[in-house]
Amino acid sequence: MPGADFIEVYPAALDAQACAAIVERLRASDVLQPGQVGGGVYPELKRSRDLSLDGRPEWADVAQALNVAVYGGLLAYLRKYPQALVAPLMLQQPGEDGRLRRLSADDIAALDDQGLGRLAHACLRPGAINLQWYRAGEGGYPYWHCELYPRGADAETLHRHLLWTLYLNDGFAAGETEFLFQQRKVAPRAGDLLIAPTAFTHTHRGNRPEGGDKFIATSWILFQRAEVLYGATQ
Q1: Where is the Prolyl 4-hydroxylase alpha subunit Fe(2+) 2OG dioxygenase domain (predicted)?
Q2: 226 part of a folded domain
Q3: For a Cys-Cys bond, which of 12, 177, 193, 206 suits 141, CB 3.0-4.6 Å?
């Protein structure tokens, strides 16, 4: 696929009314925290007010709606880039003779949505969702960063395969997600879903919004852990 930058935007992945409702709830929340980067709170690197939905049952409906929207985008992404599954995992399945054979990109393309969904579920898992509020003229994540890095004994950050951002509002200037090496800026549009790889090849930053606050939901698609993929003894 000559010229591919592996940055995909899926318009209207979540409807505008649902986005506006999430923004309203976030504005009213009394449990927002200063935005963190991998090493902690550094306002000079990232300035935002965040809400992690992990472990918050009162936000389960929002997490569910966002995960459903991301799931649709993920299937479209895997259809366009089936190597996202077959290249790192060397997947196998029984053939007509019962013997295991390795899947190719063409095999992935031939699957219907149900079959591709089962395969994605077996190989991948959703990350914890973070809602972020960037105030006009001051909020942003100007530090060039990627999402794949070694931190923590459980190595969860090394399991991140794809990043995603769902833009919850628009009507402001700037505030783009900017990718360094691809020289590409993605302008926020309410309901649009951005999916891209997590590694240094897709180093990016969140530019400061002007003339209005910016709201996003963001997380990752992670590989299943090795004991799930290969068994506890391997």
Answers
A1: 132-221
A2: yes
A3: 206
Residue 115 lies in a domain: no
Flag residues of the chain having pLDDT under 50.
Answer: 233-234
pTM beyond 0.90: yes
**Which residue is it, tokens 């930053």?**
205
* Model confidence pLDDT, tens digit, residues 171-214: 999 999 999 999 999 999 999 999 999 999 999 999 999 999 99
In a domain, 33, yes or no: yes
pLDDT at 203: 98
Angle at 110 between CA 107 and CA 114, to 5 degrees: 110
Examine residue 163 and state whether it is found in any structural domain, yes or no.
yes
DSSP-derived 3-state class of residue 219: strand
Q: What is the DSSP string of 99-125?
A: -EEE--HHHHHHS-HHHHHHHHHHHEE
Here the tokens at position 65 are 């709606």
- Domain of residue 197 covers 8-83+125-230
CA distance 217 to 40: 19
Token digits of residue 121 = 């579920």
Q: What pLDDT, on the 0 to 100 scale, is given for residue 123?
A: 96
Q: What is the CATH number of the domain that holds 142?
A: 2.60.120.620
